[in-house]
From TrEMBL, chain B:
The keyword Transmembrane applies. GO terms for molecular function: transmembrane transporter activity. InterPro entries: ABC_transp_permease. It is found in: Cell membrane. The keyword Cell membrane applies. It is a multi-pass membrane protein. This is ABC transporter permease protein yufQ. Keywords: Cell membrane, Membrane, Transmembrane, Transmembrane helix. GO terms for cellular component: plasma membrane. The lineage of its organism: Bacteria, Pseudomonadati, Pseudomonadota, Alphaproteobacteria, Acetobacterales. The chain crosses the membrane at residues 59-82, 89-107, 127-148, 184-205, 225-246, 258-278.
Amino acid sequence: MRSTSVAQRRLHEPTRVPLIGRRTFATLALAAIPGFARATRPFRVALIMNGTIGDGGWNQLAYMGLQQVSRAGCVTGYAENVAQADVMAMSRGYAEDGYDLVIGHGFEFTATFQEIGPDYPDQSFFVTAFAPDDTIPKNVAFVDMNYYALSYAAGALAALIAPAGRGVGFVGGQDNPSQRRMMYRFEDGARATVPGINAMGIVPGDFNNASLGREAASTMIGHGAGVIWHAADVTGLGALRGAEEAGVRAIGCYTDQWMVAPKAVASSTVINIPWMVEEIVRLTQARAFPGGGIWAPRLDQLWAMKWRGGTVNPALVTAAAADRFAQIWSGLSNGTINPQPATGG
Amino acid sequence: MSAILALLATGLRLAMPILIAALGETFAESAGVLNIGLEGMLTLGAFAGYVVAEHTHSVVVALLAAIPTGLLGAELLGWFVIRARASQLVVGVLFNALATGVAAYLYRLDCPPGVTLATLTLPKTDALGLTLPFYALLLLVPLAEIALRRSRVGLNLRAAGEAPQAAATAGLDVERLRMWGLRLSCLAGALGGAYLVVCQIGLFRESVVAGQGFAALAMVIFGRWRPIAVAACAVLFGCLDALQFVIQLDAARMPPQLFLALPYLVSALAISGLFGRARQPAALGVPWRREQRD
């Protein structure tokens, strides 16, 4: 029997090439441990919007928040102008790509995130809208953006700056229960502040039709409105233009919109969506994501009245009106004013 | 101003961009070309009008910017749907996406997110809230009617849309006629967009057209390819929109959703065949092949 040396045996044995190196193996093993992967790679945030990031309001502000998050070191991705039919595919796409937090900017994402949330239990989904009545998955959260308190405040300011004998009007966007309730709370705020004032509203059915917004404002001005407030994106810009063309006052929304109608805008209800985006990212990173429920920041955390670096346009808002409004705003923020619905639902 | 007059004025203002675009589309469809890209043309015209108005401060020059914009759009669309005989539906849909993308990109070069550009100064209005360009553009309605229904050119154009084979046999250049129909559609679309921005709202966003190009396409069917009827339908559509505003204010207890749907409901009923069948040009949307003559 022929014997072979160890060296010869090694020569004839097939070479064993490791599939992966020890270092790679260790990295992959650690990455498989939930939480460790997040700690070692940048946090990933996706933002999905149904409008354009150049709308000068709602979507633009969310995009600005995303930019701030990106500057802070997160990996970010976004999709704009996403049609309703594409919401599901787009949301699942970001989830499949491993984004830690997916933000759906608007009520259009409610049903989709409710449905897909349980399929991606290690990721978080945040909808910038009211929570539905259904059970909310543990990794899905909604936000109470204080729209109703804000609408009440806007109605109060509109009533305070309305010329004698003139009413106040609200221009909404897409027709949905939130927009209708905002209209009712606006009317409540106006009537509670100036009893007997003519408060009215139109919801034209579209967030992006400036032409409709302008004509809705014009129609209300024809019905006696002396101040217009809107809560609609591009439609609202048209409403501001309509107010200026008709020579009445207006209150902007979402951003400081004095430049859209310089002669008409008395102030704007400015939403701090960039803060909201940053804050929800911070909460998620700190494992304090308000999943399974509703996140409820204070009115003055999310909203502020702004006009060209100040609060109100002194040419259109008297000091007495500004003081009275500041009291109402403070009361709504700290909860000492908690208006009960008087109009509508 | 009486309530009815106010409602009519609101309806006319809302209708004008749709009316202009629909008039042009009547020519294209009569020649056999379905220009689904009309929405995109409105967007490009709106952007061109905005940029030119911002720099020249002239309403007339801004409206004239629709001419090169419309012609460029027509050449691009025409190459695909007339020369290459691609599907008019698919090309139109893609063109709309392209136009929105181009307008958004160029607008953001000028105005990145976070920056708000100054708005345009709108032309002066009369007691009805209507502008001088409005009345000038209203003249397009009788002109279109005469050109399409009572002139030799119009007859040739309709022949290209009804019976292109016969038209070619009679010595007409069907491709050329269709191209002119498409050019008029794109020109009118761009003009409608420019009018919307320059004369009505004084600002631009890429979503500002908001489906008015598609509404114009519906108005052409609603008006049965007759310019005066198409214009009347556009005004009716605008008035129904205006009516829903008034009803929301004066009849607040009634379900508002019904009135929001009113313009679309009436349009759907009008094209449903309930009030007589709408007969479209026989060769509408059918690519013309020159070799069919042999």
